[in-house]
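To the team - coenzyme A complex, inputs and output below.
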Amino acid sequence: MEAQSRARLAIAKRVEELGIQDFLRTTKSLLMNEDLKVMSNGLPDWWHVNENVLLSATEAPVRIATHQGEPVPQRSVIIIGKNVTPPTITLWGACSIVILGNDVYMPDGSYSCGPNSTIIIEDKTAATSGPRVNCRNGGIIFIGSDGLWSANIRIFSDDMHAILNLSDNKRINDFGGKVIVEEHVWLGYDAMLLPGTQLGRDSIVGARSVVSKPMPSNSIHAGIPAKTVRSDVTWDKADLP
Ligand SMILES: CC(C)(COP(=O)(O)OP(=O)(O)OC[C@H]1O[C@@H](n2cnc3c(N)ncnc32)[C@H](O)[C@@H]1OP(=O)(O)O)[C@@H](O)C(=O)NCCC(=O)NCCS
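Output:
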């Protein structure tokens, strides 16, 4: 099957499995964009023999690496829209999906995505610098369009290590968790989003806050753990008086 169709099919299947159809705003039209071309220049040798696909609407270089000691990526899909800052993407295992929409501006942005895991950042989310997004174990990190991220944002889909209950040795923390951020959400300096986060649209996260629960829209959430400190607000990127 042609690489483009294979990539689109894999994404459609994943979106359905995750039940996130209703959150998607700009991803569907991105996937239909005729400018998405298969890119292969400058990619590591293993990329080409393992049915990995990179479709991009931009000439920006994409740095793809793999996680040392983990299985080499296979059947992974990366989609990059137009006008995207060059990302560093680390993949491991099978069937990772990373989608960066049009005008995603993330200087020094780094995305790590493990097997069967999904990172989607929709159009026009911009960061000051250095965001780190880490999704693993079948987890999902979804970011709606028009987000504004200050510097040093950290988003993790799970804790990366097991916490075990002494009585039965079962894992008690999320394995492959979910982070869902709806459209037009502003994350303040050094904010951290942990598994279980759901941020409603037009909301704000305060500086150095840690979120790990569903939080309502049009509100400000701040502190560790973040609590809603103000409701019935929105925000504007312009620094209006
Ligand atoms: C959250 C924020 C937007 C302010 O919102 P606000 O509605 O004006 O908040 P207030 O200052 O009235 O504070 C409301 C309460 O939240 C607390 N609070 C505010 N920001 C907080 C933060 N970052 N962490 C913990 N608590 C915070 C206040 O102490 C106050 O608590 P109280 O009611 O117990 O006194 C601001 O404090 C903030 O964190 N801005 C970060 C912006 C940023 O990172 N900009 C970089 C450019 S992108």
